[in-house]
Amino acid sequence: MGGYLDAVKDVSIELHQGRVLAVVGESGSGKSTLAKLLAGREIPSTGHVELAGSAITVKSKRRFKEYKRVVQMIFQDPFASLNPVHTIRYHLERPIKIHQHLHGQELQAQLDDLMEQVRLTPSSRYLSKYPHELSGGQRQRVSIARALAAKPMVLLADEPVSMLDVSIRLEILALLDDLRSRLGLAVLYITHDIASARYLADEIVVMYAGQVVERGTAEEVTQIPSHPYTQLLIRSSPDPDSIAVNRSQHLNILTPTSSGARTNIGCPFAVRCPLVTDICMESYPPTTEVGGAHFANCWNLEIKTTQSDRASVTHFGIHEGGTVEI
């Protein structure tokens, strides 16, 4: 049979200090692969990772350790990401010793500070416990504290609230929002829930079948979705604010019969799109400006403006061909 599948193809993103970029899409869209590339857990077949304008390779153990100090990841499952045989103290002490080289009273002071940052106080109540003794929300707070222990510049949050009770998801999102503002962190927020992306993110990138189909400010993408796939995500969202948008759309996007189907030519969403035309099957649509800093890849867009309003300074991103820059 042969052939290969591009998990992420021609993606270009940028992260800025003190801001949140949300990458939204269904399972199989390439979101987690993108996060793994940024975390150095996967090596891109083409393109490269950049940190502060310099190309990064994390093949050596020492270089990977240095990179992890700057770029930390928060995983989806707060129980699986914590070792059940170790206490919370162990989970937090280890990265502090590795990255900050603290011991004794300084180590304890840092532990207390981390627990306060994630609002698990008093710290003495939690440090001696094991992961199974905490709730899902508390375990995720510990995971966030562990990431902060390295004093990173970048947090990669891969579906950090999807496995939590609905009642505490907003609390964790509010915590991430507070940390990015207070610590000046650049945050990549991976999610399938465009409503939570609108709540937390400054900018949203929508991915489908490994490619970017729409991007722009959170307000523009959620209130004026241009790509048919983004409109599908909005229709599926429980966000009450999206009701007006949903009712104003006359596009009838049917339940997909070929979820995430990928082709090497044409638009990857063509097999599900009600607006599909011959050109959609033959050629991938170019990136088109649909208003200000709002862009989409679709052959059937209504162009609202042609005036460019792109941001000029980047601190972290993946550029075309798979390049990542911090």
From TrEMBL:
NCBIfam families: oligo_HPY
Stored Gene3D superfamilies: P-loop containing nucleotide triphosphate hydrolases
Highest taxon, organism lineage: Bacteria
Domain ABC transporter residue range list: 1-234
Species of the source: Ferrimicrobium acidiphilum DSM 19497
UniProt keyword terms in alphabetical order: ATP-binding, Nucleotide-binding, Transport
GO biological process: peptide transport; transmembrane transport
GO molecular function annotation: ATP binding; ATP hydrolysis activity
Keyword Metal-binding: no
Protein name per the record: Putative D,D-dipeptide transport ATP-binding protein DdpF
